[in-house]
Amino acid sequence: MPRVTIEKDRCKGCSLCVEACPQQVLEMSLDINVKGYFYARPVRAHHCIGCRVCAITCPDVAIEVAVHGTLYHYFDY
Ligand code: SF4
Ligand code: SF4
Which three-class secondary structure state does DSSP give residue 57? Predict the structure, then answer.
């Protein structure tokens, strides 16, 4: 099964990934991170199809997706 991981303290709470996910896997948290933002988190991880749209969409490179043992992490900086 694909696995999506969000580094919550990199998140700036823009919610682009939540809107981009075709499976409604992600939601914004009601907690805040160290930057003071509500952060995205996977709440329906079992619905993830590993499309990686969330990781490509995130402007802050906060999302990694692992599919069949391959870890996708875009624009490493
Ligand atoms: S990999 Fe695709 S289905 Fe999975 S959380 Fe990201 S956008 Fe949603
Ligand atoms: S796209 Fe990135 S910065 Fe924006 S809410 Fe999602 S994880 Fe956070």
Answer: helix
